[in-house]
TrEMBL record:
Keyword rRNA-binding: no
InterPro entries: FliD, FliD_C, FliD_N
Residues in Flagellar hook-associated protein 2 C-terminal domain copies: 224-447
Domain Flagellar hook-associated protein 2 N-terminal: 11-109
Originating species: Marinobacter daepoensis
Keywords annotated in UniProt: Bacterial flagellum, Cell projection, Cilium, Coiled coil, Flagellum, Secreted
Stated name of the protein: Flagellar hook-associated protein 2
Location of region: Disordered: 185-204
Keyword Cell membrane included in the entry's annotation: no
Function text: Required for morphogenesis and for the elongation of the flagellar filament by facilitating polymerization of the flagellin monomers at the tip of growing filament. Forms a capping structure, which prevents flagellin subunits (transported through the central channel of the flagellum) from leaking out without polymerization at the distal end.
Family: Belongs to the FliD family.
Assembly, per entry: Homopentamer.
Localization terms from the record: Secreted; Bacterial flagellum
Amino acid sequence: MASISSIGAGSGLFTNDLLNQLVQVERAPTEARLNRREAETQAKISAFGMIRSALEALKTPMEALSQPDSMRSYTSSSSNESVVGVSVDSSTANRGSYTVDVQQLAQAQSLASAAFADRDTTALGSGTLSLTVGGVTTDIEIDGSNNTLQGVADAINDANAGVSAGVVDTGDGYRLVLSSDSSGTANEMSISVSDDDGNNTDSGGLSQFVFDGTTSNMEQTVAAKDAILDINGIQVTRSTNTIENVVDGVTFDVLATGVSTVKVTQDEEAVVQKVQDFVDKFNALQDQIKKVAGYNAETETGGLLNGDSTIRAIQSDLRQQLTKIPAGLEDSPIRMLADIGITTDPASGKLEFDQSVFKEKLGENPEAMTALFAESEQGGGIAAQMVASAERFLGSDGLLANRTEGLGEALQEIEDQRFELDDRIAAFEKRLIQQFSAADQLIAQIQSTGNFVQQQLAALAPQPRSNG
């Protein structure tokens, strides 16, 4: 706001305070209107953001229920966890009970060389060391740069031959120790050499590391073994102690010899919790919609988004999905959510969940329950269709994005109008200053003329006579 110190100097009538007041009176109505529009627009953007967050939160449990294995949740137990541990994959597992008799654990083979006086000075010969593990042979060159005990160990480790090498100080000398990286008889080691001394089987040079089934110049300290166990009387052999692909969806981790009873049972509570999450998030969305778009009959006031077409579309679309009968379930005893204990309160629009009814139906017909929620050959279940609906609203070109983008454009328009207001007020202020200055000059001229006339009249007035 301009401040011209000469305003009112002649008359004392047109002051800066008066100028500022007139400018503020001119600005105030438009500025108040723009402030109201901006506050309302910002509030609507925030309200749509809350609706978006609630809808995204609802989408997560809907996605879980839309999966083909959504109703297939299983838990497992072992009567003797020190012998057998167990885990399940609910997508392929089924209920069952298994007696597991572990007769032998799998173990990896270990070999040890003869003792040497030192680990990094004595030359052990040169040539090619060939390691065969699991049918794969790896050739390792040994020469003057690595022909010590430690050098051979390092060369084996660098070769990634399926064997780990180390040097052990026994107190009476140093021994090269080799261990197969994988357990089981299929991963037994075979070691042959091409010794530069011309003899590939004696105890000199590289030949002292031969272990090929015929010549055993290294000592087998641990024999390779397979895991052997009986599952319900059927013998199973595996190279590892993690037993997979014997019972669908079940993994046995054998830890010791002995017997344990393993049970796989349906985890009803886990399935119920998935559905409860869906109900809770759906009801939370209804609460959010009521907060921003509801109508209070007592105060006769509506929420900020009351009557908004986007909010109505979200409510209408989701409610329609709740009452649909998915394709293929027209003649099924389970056709809609109400059949499994999920009903809608007409007063609030919220869902009510009777878990006891749900558990009963889940036990009677898990396949129909899955088809009710998930994608199937006949078409999409309720959860799958609700996910698709949510994605339409939440997408970059969805209704929520379009509404928020439109409100953002409205904010930019308000900002543009503020610039226009500043320009108009500046021009108005300039005109006032010009008008005040002209009026002040006119008043000053009138005052000057008045003073001159008074002086002339005073000069013409009779002068009092002197008595002398």
